[in-house]
Design a protein that fits this description.
By secondary structure, the protein is mostly beta strands. It has two helices and 33 strands.
Length: 417
């Protein structure tokens, strides 16, 4: 082989490896909420908040987050007539690169987009509120393939449409289909062809995104429906276990499908939160992940749609029924604190970077900066997000020292370095 050919091969190989390693998801790696690569961020903000770099108001109404990769930002929203969903690509200075319609909008309660795209190499994967799984080219937004799994599997929706984010695993993109017979399916991420299907329960859909867990050499996809939590072999789609003990008692079944957060996995234990006053449930998993055992239930702490973050065996987040913020010992279920955010702020989204929490209050659009403290809610700075309109349901994103917030049709960038 000639030297030039060898050089080309080496360059191509490392380019391929680099691309293969590039998987960018909602709430960072495996939806954990921790942006671990961010360093040297402000530990306190000025009274008026950190420097606002720019704002754009043409993303379309949406509660999707922003994803950042390779000098571009991607986020979803509604078209002007609110009948379709669109994905928009911006440069890091807020300049629009392209905007593409990809699916049908939910037309009942809370119409705004929910899902956030997943970036995998040169492709984007997106789920519409109407259960359309779409693969797009990152460079120009061209749609490469679509699977309408609502129609394909006769999906049974929940009250507010489909809210999950696609799960990319190897050559597969996995979604929770919640059909009459099939509850989960994996599609070839390059072609959209079915790789496997998992027979289910005929339940309605819930809101959570499935996640991959790993334990003692075993891997598993953990997902949920309205009435079941379950584990699936990610290679074959075989259901390994399922359980319904986490669902509410018969007397309090209103909003029983409000499982919004991906479960938290910690040292062989799985924490599931239902929200809306129904509390959370802890399971212990067998070493081979083939079965689960109910350990405890905590009816006070019902982590809601703002996400859960586990740090050193403590789970943090905001609660649904009480509109407060809480810390819970994952081993024992003991409540370490359950406090209101002073000044009338309610529950909201929670992410973490560089040892600090970032809290986005859904009531008033207040952004808070807090120390990680298992003994109390320790807010050190806050400011009001005045751009955009409507409820503040989106989860903030941090990339390279910039805080990105979606609010209504607005996308705002703040310098937090």
């Amino acid at each position: 082989m000639k030297r030039s050919s060898i050089s080309f091969f080496i360059l191509s190989f490392f380019t391929f490896v680099s691309l293969q390693a590039q998987l960018v998801t909602f709430r960072s790696v495996n939806h954990c909420g921790i942006y671990s690569k961010e360093k040297n961020l402000l530990k306190e903000w000025p009274a008026e908040g950190p420097e606002k770099l720019w704002v754009v108001n043409d993303a379309g109404k949406g509660n999707s987050s922003a994803l950042v990769s390779d000098g571009f930002i991607y986020t979803a929203g509604l078209t002007d007539d609110e009948q379709k969903e669109q994905l928009t690509c911006y440069k890091l200075d807020g300049t629009k690169v392209w905007q593409v319609t990809y699916g049908r909008a939910w037309t009942k309660s809370f119409q705004e987009t929910r899902s956030t795209p997943v970036i995998d190499d040169d492709r984007l994967y997106m789920v519409s509120n109407m259960g359309e799984l779409v693969c797009l080219n990152r460079s120009d937004g061209k749609i490469l393939w679509t699977v309408d799994y609502w129609q394909k599997y006769s999906l049974s929706p929940n009250d507010q449409g489909i809210c999950e984010h696609p799960l990319v695993d190897g050559n597969k993109v996995i979604v929770t289909t919640c059909g009459k017979e099939i509850c989960m399916a994996a599609f070839d991420k390059l072609t959209g062809e079915v790789i496997w299907e998992t027979k289910g329960f005929g339940d309605n859909a819930t809101y959570c995104t499935s996640r991959i867990i790993e334990w003692k050499g075993h891997r598993q996809v953990v997902g949920g429906t309205e009435l079941h939590i379950f584990g699936v072999d990610p290679e074959t789609g075989k259901m390994l276990w399922n359980d319904s003990q986490w669902t509410p008692e018969q007397a309090v079944k209103k909003w029983q499908n409000a499982m919004i957060n991906s479960p938290v996995f910690y040292k062989g234990k799985l924490l599931v939160s239902l929200g809306d006053g129904h509390g959370c449930t802890m399971y212990e998993m067998s070493d081979d992940l083939s079965s689960v055992k109910l350990l405890w239930k905590n009816k006070e702490i019902d982590y809601y749609m703002g996400g859960m973050i586990e740090i050193d065996g403590v789970v943090y987040g905001s609660t649904g029924d009480k509109h407060k913020w809480a810390a819970l010992d994952i081993e024992t279920g003991k409540v370490l604190y359950h406090e209101a955010w002073a000044g009338g702020k309610g529950r909201g989204a929670l992410i973490m970077a560089d040892g600090m929490f970032y809290m986005f209050d859904e009531r008033r659009g207040t952004m808070g900066l807090a120390r990680v403290n298992p003994e109390k809610l320790d807010v050190v700075s806050e400011f009001r997000v005045t751009d955009g309109s409507g409820a503040c349901f989106s989860h903030p994103t941090i990339f390279d020292g910039i805080l990105y917030i979606r609010h209504g049709s607005a996308l705002i960038a703040y310098n937090i370095k």
